[in-house]
Structure formats: C-alpha cells, structure tokens
Design brief:
The protein has about 425 residues and is of the alpha/beta class. Helices cover about 40% and strands about 15% of the residues. Keywords: Biotin biosynthesis, Pyridoxal phosphate, Transferase.
Length: about 425
C-alpha cells in the first residue's frame, strides 16, 4: 500500500474540497473533426459550448491550407521567431492581419494568454499604472500583476470608474505610462465594454488603451473587424486570438511600428517561446480569407442568435449577465444580443452542473461555468451559437431546456 507524500496529502484534501463544493472539473474526450455535431466519449451530441463562432475549425479549405504548409514547411518551427522559427507563413499571416485590422504592424503569439502577459509585462514597470475592468480575462489579470505596475481595478463596464482612476493616476515627470485595459466582449457575461467612453477618457488623460477582442474579432462589425469596427474605436494596442472565429490557434497583437518593434525586443512570452507551427499560420490566413469572402457566415450567426434569444424569451428564460450588471451600451434596448455568447445564470453550482448533465444526456453539450471562472453565486450555463448551427438545432436545444425545467412558459408553436 502506497503512502501519500506530504504534497499529495495536501493536494488530495483540496481536490476533495472541490468535489464537495461541486467545483471539480473533468475533461471530456472528443473524437473527430470539431463542429456543431460532435462525438463525445461515445455519445453523439450537438455542440453549444464552443468558441468556433463561424464554423471554420472543421472547414476543409482551412485544413487543406494547413496540409499544404505541412508538406512545404514541416510540423514545427524549431526555435523562437528571433532565431530560426520565423517562417514565411508567419510573415504572410502578420501582413494579412495588419491589412485586415488597419494597423501598421502585427506580431504573432502562441496563445492569447501569451500575448496579453507578454504585452503587459513587457510595457509596464513599477512606476506605471494599469487600470483594468474587474471582469477582464484571467490572462490580463495575471499579466498586470506580473508587470509590477500599480494595479487599479474598476467595477465592470463602469465608465465613471475609469474616469476616476485615470484622474488619480500620477505622471509628475512625464515618463510614466498609464494604460487602461479591457476585454471588448466579456467571455462569460456576453456583454460589451463601453469602449467609446473609455477611449475618449484615455485621450483626455494622456493614457494608452489596450483591448482584448478575442470574442469580437471576425464576428462583430459589418466586415468582421471586431469591436473596433462595431464601436468605432481604435485602441493603441489591439489583441485578438485565432482559436475562435478563425478556427485555428494562436493570437496576435496589432499596433504601431514602434509598439511591435518594442514587443519583439521585450515581450518575454514572444522572445522565449518556440514560434507556432507554420501550418497553423497558413490555416489561419485561409480562414481570414474566408471570413472576408463569405460575410453570409456572420449573417447566419446573427440569425441563429436572434432565433435562440427569441425562443428563450418565449420560454420565460432570462439570458445575459447576472441581475444588477450594467447593460451593454450596444445591446441595451435591442431585441437580441449581437454576440454569440448567451449566458443563463442559475446561481448555484450544483444545480448548474445538474442541468448541464441533464442536457448532455439529451444530446446537447452546454458547459456549466462555476467559480473561480465566475463570481460565487453566479454559476451559469454558457450557451454559444455558431454560424453552422441549423434552425432545427436551435429549436431542439430550446425544447431540451424546457424539458430540463428551465423557463416558466411553454414554447410557442
């Protein structure tokens, strides 16, 4: 009989605490190409919890672009981009992303986490000030803490709070940096930051603005250029990922020539990481071409969002951020949200997971989200829509939700 080490004893106790609180997380194994139909641990189901908003993760044209690059460039980059890892496929993708976003330069990172941590730790020092929305992604929170800068947290989507924090930031010698940072689309609440207001405040106070548009890039705006296009803003530092609307992997930072050159020198997660495989860059460039050539994907996504929200309303289901959260400046007063993230806040973690399991038993994969990902008492189903969902898929999910006891009214014919 083996005896646990002191380390294992401590970890086992914490794991048991997580199980008892219904906060224990498990992975499920997916077999096959990612899409709205998945085979998960031997069970066929409809996928309503993916970030593959435009349905490109399983697109054959994207896969073929990767295959061609695999033949020409192999499976790996072999080194960091500053040694031998910078392939022509990386350069082509950076140039395509710069043209698409309208920024002078783009720099690729291995993930959104690496991009956010690399930017914040690379730009900020102990003399600087970071002003951040309290519901920013964990990568922005960790990057800000690692930077050593004075960290001022602002209540979620609170423009007045940003004004107060910016007014309090001190720059007596003109040498320190004040940086405001926010998600464009918040991944758990599905709402939008008040970017025009924050951008105006940054200009007024001589501060820089950074946005993480992971869930808006490719989805929002007439041409899919994200939160900037939808809200008419242009932050100094624009970060987005390629594992969502582009259906591939990695992330990028867009900005001025000076910013990108500085990050090449100082962003540790770029300097000391092996460059992404060239095939991933080739696949992302093909996906970018598709979202520009096929705006109907975004149109189908909006139709699916509208259908789901209308159906949920008929059932008496309240979607959106928790009660008391500030309303999005764009979606407030509209019939449905513009974004594919539709949270259904249940509150209790145990009930949330029970409903998630009941839906899975009926063939619908809808993720239950619990603390610490969301604040205590706001556990939820995070329902996401894709351009490749069919109307029948959406209606079937609504029927299943009703069968699981959600809502207060029968679904209309």
């Amino acid at each position: 009989m083996s005896i646990d080490s002191p380390l294992d004893q401590r970890l086992r106790a914490e794991l048991e605490r997580l199980r008892a609180a219904d906060l224990y997380r498990m992975r499920r194994v997916v077999d096959g190409v990612h899409g709205v139909r998945l085979r998960v641990e031997g069970r066929d189901c409809l996928n309503f919890c993916s970030n593959d908003y435009l349905g490109l993760a399983g697109d054959e044209r994207v896969a073929e672009a990767a295959r061609r690059a695999l033949t020409g460039s192999g499976t790996g980059s072999g080194a960091s981009a500053l040694i031998t890892g910078y392939n022509v496929e990386h350069r082509r993708l950076e140039e395509a992303l710069a043209e698409f976003t309208g920024y002078p330069r783009v720099l690729l990172f291995t993930s959104g986490w690496a991009a956010n941590c690399g930017v914040l730790r690379g730009l900020l020092s102990r003399q600087d000030t970071l002003i951040a929305d309290e519901l920013n992604h964990a990568s922005l929170i960790d990057g800000g803490r690692l930077s050593g800068a004075t960290y001022r947290r602002v209540a979620h989507a609170d423009g007045a709070g940003f004004r107060t924090a910016l007014s309090a930031a001190k720059n007596p010698d003109g040498q320190t940096l004040t940086l405001a940072v926010t998600d464009s689309v918040f991944s758990m609440d599905g709402d939008l930051a008040p970017l025009p207001q924050i951008a105006a405040l940054c200009r007024e106070h001589g501060a820089a603005l950074m946005t993480d548009d992971a869930h808006g890039f490719g989805v929002l705006g007439d041409r899919g250029r994200g939160g900037n296009e939808l809200l008419g803003t242009r932050p100094d530092i624009y970060v987005a990922t390629m594992g969502k609307s582009l259906g591939t992997a990695g992330a990028f930072v867009a900005g001025s020539e000076t910013l990108i050159e500085y990050l090449i020198q100082r962003a540790r997660s770029f300097v000391f990481s092996t460059a992404p495989p060239p095939a991933i860059a080739a696949a992302a460039r093909e996906a970018l071409r598709i979202i520009q050539a096929e705006p109907e994907r975004r149109a189908r996504l909006q139709l699916n969002i509208a259908r789901f929200v209308r159906g949920a309303t008929q059932l008496g289901i309240r979607l959106g951020p928790p009660e008391g959260s500030p309303a999005s400046p764009v979606t407030s007063g509209h019939e449905f949200s513009l974004v594919p993230i539709q949270p259904l806040v249940i509150g209790d973690a145990a009930r949330t997971m029970a409903v998630s399991r009941a839906l899975f038993e009926r063939g619908f994969w809808v993720a239950g989200i619990r603390p610490p990902t969301v604040p205590a008492g706001t556990s939820r189903l995070r329902i996401t829509l894709s351009a490749t969902h069919e109307a029948a898929h959406v209606d079937a999910l609504l029927d299943a939700m009703r069968a699981c006891g959600l809502g207060s009214r029968p679904l209309a014919a």
